[in-house]
Please model this.
Amino acid sequence: MAKTSSVEREKKRQRMVAHFAEKRKALKAIAKDTTLAQEDRFTARLRLAEMPRNSSKTRLHNRCIVTGRARGVESRFKMCRIVLRDLASRGLIPGMVKSSW
Model:
């Protein structure tokens, strides 16, 4: 199990990303629009820089939904490799069979 604080920090980041998503999208659109005046684009970039860092989508990290482990997470199942292998061995994931020879 991962530390509870790490898992909670990641959940907080996810909430922040969702909260600021529309505002960030609008500011990025203004900053990239070459038809606008350069001053407007610059102020949009400044306002974007003033926003919290954790509101950026790139700060998110995949974590296992069972254990909270940050490494070796299979994106299709949102589980780490260890939990995925264990559940597949027990036959709890439909259609997945652990091969052994």
User: Anything to note?
Assistant: DSSP finds three helices and two strands in the chain. The chain has a mean pLDDT of 92. The domain at 62-101 is CATH 4.10.830.10 (30s Ribosomal Protein S14; Chain N).
